[in-house]
Amino acid sequence: MDYFLTEEQQMIVDVARQITEEMIIPQRAELDEKEEFPAEILKAIAKADLFGLYIPEEYGGFGGGCFEMVLALEQFGRGCVGIATSFAASALGAYPILISGSDELKRKYMPVIARGEKWAAFGLTEANAGSDASGIQTTAVLDGDEWVLNGTKQWITNGGDAQIYSVIAITDRSKGPRGASMFVVEDTDPGFSYGAKEKKLGIRASSTRELIFKDCRIPKERLIGRQGTGFFTVMKTLDLSRPGIASLGVGLGQAALDEAVNYAKQRVQFGKPVISFQAVQHILADMAIQLEASRSLVYATARYINTEPKDMAKYSSMCKVMATDMAMKVSTDAVQVLAGYGYMREYPVEKMMRDAKILQIYEGTNQIQRNVIGQALNKEYSRN
Length: 384
Ligand code: COS
Hints:
Helix 6 (230-266) packs antiparallel against helix 7 (278-305) and helix 8 packs antiparallel against helix 10 (366-383). The protein has 384 residues and is an alpha+beta fold. Helix content is 54%, strand content 15%. The chain is built from 10 helices and 10 strands. The mean pLDDT is 97. It has 3 domains: 7-114, Orthogonal Bundle (Butyryl-Coa Dehydrogenase, subunit A, domain 1), CATH 1.10.540; 120-228, Butyryl-CoA Dehydrogenase, subunit A, domain 2 (Beta Barrel); 231-379, Butyryl-CoA Dehydrogenase, subunit A, domain 3 (Up-down Bundle), CATH 1.20.140. Residues 122, 124-125, 131, 133-134, 177, 231-232, 235-236, 238-239, 313, 362-364, 368, 371-372 line the site of coenzyme a persulfide.
């Protein structure tokens, strides 16, 4: 379907597609197998100027928004959700600075992130604070001209490979969600270290580690926005980033459909290609319907978010749920269509199925997304 992209948007798709076809697809199986961080591919993405897609021009970026990121992430997700996650996580780490940071912080960090010279990461999750984001225990205390951070963040994408971290910590426990603040921590800061690399079911090319803060001292200017606004910055960050996760689902769904149709056309059973059997056609048709419906909602949502509306949380969550549930279903169906071959590592669909699962979990489980949507509906209908 023609989604009437502008010339610039089409160019983003073309550049991202070229990197996907020339670098990501040929390397994905090996990086997945070796659980290796895709540093060379990220450098190529930087060279193609895609790291600054969502960053305003005045801070060295391309000046696009959520939709432009969605277009690039869909292409990368078509190649490998693990590699695409490493790219997406840098934006997740940059958004808090962009959303709430001072001009000084933006000038310091945005240009290097936009050029892809330094990678960013986002430190929210802790052992006892997953869905319950406001349950974090990491603390930050002001001591003279420095903040002192103590605590451990868990399952941080790009942890240990990124150089710039946006981290949330409690600055006043008595104030609940208004007692948390965000900070920029750099990889070289004293008292900052990492845990061991996690071993995962899927997205194995991405790195996941703990961030450990032991009397980690950072300059007081690294506070992002005002003290006490950290939880709100986190929520707004996730509103912006979740359509990106949805678009990874769309890319993955497209790749799974491509594999399933191509296989069904060449696999002969009972003397005919299996695509000639209605049982297979119906599976493929349902895959295609769900995929296109998801893509339409993701594009519409991302375009809407580009206009900075107040009610973006509901739509952001809607497209995240729809496209990532689709990705899980469609990749599972692709394995079914390829059957025994689909279950083998020689074919790419088993990896797609493994990778799809995380999309329903990270950046807020799909159960949490439904909570966000339900609460928004409750509020909306109370007003009317
Ligand atoms: N934008 C701005 N403000 C928001 C917001 C948003 N999207 N969502 C919530 N807030 C505000 C609320 O309005 C409320 O402020 P008021 O007290 O002034 O009304 C405050 O934040 C607290 O909100 P709420 O009571 O809804 O917070 P909860 O602790 O119940 O948590 C959820 C809300 C569950 C939605 C949140 O914790 C969440 O998103 N969890 C998932 C976290 C996640 O995605 N983790 C994945 C790891 S990150 S890769």
